[in-house]
Amino acid sequence: MHLVHNVYFTLNDNSPAAKQKLVDACHKYLTDHPGTVYFSAGTLAEEYNRPVNDRGYDVALHVVFDGRASHDAYQVAPRHLEFIAENKANWKTVRVFDSDAS
Which of 54, 101, 59, 56 is nearest to 83 (CA)? Predict the structure, then answer.
């Protein structure tokens, strides 16, 4: 069973440059971890503004792991911790959604 790790960041400075900086940092630090099946990071799709769309974030991170063990190892991996240390000063809120998927 896969473990899906979705993270939604709301930024203090949510200028286009700041959003892109965080997306770039996601690609630098959070790609190619052992057990990663899928990775993507990007900004809110501004054109989607239906009543059901949650627009309370600036940057989204999506990582699918081959299981819980890979996810748990990622959480304490040096590159993941470096990503947090380098970027957390600009995080207003961070919402994490982990789910099992088959």
Answer: 59
Per residue in 32-80, pLDDT (tens digit) is 999 999 999 999 999 999 999 999 999 999 999 999 999 999 999 999 9
How far apart CA 33 and CA 73 sit, in angstroms, is: 9
Give all domains of the chain, ordered by start, each with its CATH number. Answer: 2-47+56-101 (3.30.70.100)
Query: Which of helix, strand or coil describes residue 95?
Result: strand
CA distance 2 to 71: 9
Does the model's pTM come out above 0.70?
yes
Rounded CA Rg of the chain: 14
